[in-house]
Amino acid sequence: MSDFYSQDDPCVALDPRCGGDGGERCEQCQRYAALVAPPRPARLPAGLALKLRGMADDFAEADPLYIRALAGEPLAGEVPAEEAENPGRRAAHDALAVTFAEARRPKPLPPALRARLRSVPRRHAAGRLPVWLADSRWATAASLVLTATLALLAGDASARFQQTAAVFAEPPPLVRSLETPEWAERQAELSGLLADARRATGDRLGDAGGAASKEAKSLIGRFQTWRVAAADRGQRSAETTWQRVYDGAARRLDAAATTLEETKIGQTVVDLMQEGENDD
Amino acid sequence: METSKGEARTTHPDLLLARRAQKADDRAWDEIVARYGERIYNLALRFTGGRNGEAEDLTQDVFLKLYGHLGSYRGEVPLMAWALRLSRNLCVDYYRRHRRRYQGTVGAEVLQFRSGDDDPLRDSWLQQRRELVHQTLAEMGEEQATVVMLRDLQGMAYDEVAHILELPVGTVKSRLNRARRELMSRVTEKLAAAEARDGENSSGPHRAGNGA
After folding, report:
1. Nearest C-alpha in A relative to B190
2. Is the C-alpha dihedral spanning A49, A54, A55, A57 positive or negative?
């Protein structure tokens, strides 16, 4: 038996020269050693930390610079090998990094939008009105014009006139914010007309109730149609919708004047309107 | 957790909130708005490009839809993902309109950011870079751009993204991989071209440290 068998690490090829006197191992032994050697501890891949943080569990297939940008990792001082071949890569990392970083700082919810969102259930319950219509200044203005028109048309309750006139005498902030010359002119006209009509005719306005309520129903129907059409077209058309409601109300006022001409009260109103024009 | 027939075995805490809101509990609805309003608004900014207040319109539309369908929420995923799935077509419509009208360029609402220092030159550079990334994203295919927006810009979990897009998680991951490579490649290409065009001086403040 040779010394070979007393070695702690015997040669797999039984070659007595293998590793003798601290020399090199034979080729067979080197191959064997490579096969059975435990794997060398791998370096932690750049993306693994990100994976563990749940940011990029598919990092293995992704571009490492992209992933580092996603994680907000700077490249300070480093010059990736790829950069030498493509000068845009580092710049791309930076561009993506600032974009992702900013995206992670959310824009706050605008207070006005928060209020609109909070009112969704109320609006929903109140007949599934689109929120924008119920809340927008245009809709408020339109509803006031409508109210005034209806009050004039219905004309059967002086209390309603008073109420409407009071609204115009002290318009709510939303209406005040309109501040358009046309609106101011029409507002003054309506306000004056209603006040004069109330003063001049008082309870006798009730005489025109029958014909006027028919007109009022027609106007409500038209308003509903406009509202639905506007909702279908989207919020951008809110202003247009209001304009149409306004124009429609104006047309109905003219029609109301024609209707009212047939009554004594109607004639009184028309006279008042004409007087107003003459004064101007 | 209170569950009814057909609801997921493991339900999300949002389910209770949704049930309360459905029963006209104003505080529950306010909680939903507080919890998800900002996130949905920020996502709406991405889909609309932050122009003409359309992000606000879209946010509101999503919440209107959410409220109208609260009764069918089963708590499988967070309420936000569920609401976005309901509103997916709506979001896509806004997104397509934004790409068609503005060729993908984003508005001030999106680009506005909090500057970290008083260097206007650097701020301008950062803004240009962000604009370029958004523009590039808009030039990519809709499917790829959407998945990057949801996952990388909004930080949504894979299962949320999968739920919104009605795709298996694996498909979301593979689509995201392709999208990321595509985005990186396109941005690199553009910036390399710009760098070659402008020379060394235009390479920007990243020489002094990156902007992340």
Report:
1. A88
2. positive
Partner-chain contact A61 B38, CB within 8 Å: no
Q: Do A96 and B134 touch (CB under 8 A)?
A: no
From CA A99, how far away is CA A104, in angstroms rounded? 9
- How close is the nearest chain A Cα to the Cα of B47, in Å? 13
pTM of the model as a whole: 0.54
Helix ranges (H only) for chain A are 27-36, 48-52, 64-70, 81-85, 88-103, 111-118, 120-125, 131-135, 137-154, 158-169, 173-176, 181-201, 209-233, 238-261, 264-279
> The tokens of A275 are what?
């007087």
Closest residue of chain A to B129, computed from CA coordinates: A95
Q: Is A86 touching B (CB cutoff 8 A)? A: yes
A126 and chain B in contact, CB less than 8 A = no
Q: Give the residue from chain B lying closest to A63, CA to CA.
A: B181
Residue B69 CA to chain centroid, in angstroms? 22
Q: How many CB atoms lie within 10 A of CB A124?
A: 15
A144 close to A186: Cβ distance less than 8 angstroms: no
Per-residue pLDDT 10s for chain B (212 aa) are: 334 444 444 578 889 899 999 888 889 999 999 999 998 999 898 888 877 677 888 888 888 889 988 989 988 888 888 888 888 888 888 888 777 766 666 776 666 655 555 667 777 777 888 888 988 988 888 889 999 999 988 888 888 899 889 899 888 988 898 899 899 989 988 888 877 776 655 444 444 344 33
Cα–Cα distances (Å) from A70 to A89, A94, B51, B153, in that order, read 14, 10, 26, 9
Helix then strand then coil, % of chain B, to nearest 5: 75, 0, 25
Q: By the CB < 8 Å criterion, does B187 face chain A?
A: yes
Residue A244, both tokens? 């149409």
ipTM metric: 0.80
B59 touches chain A (CB under 8 A): yes
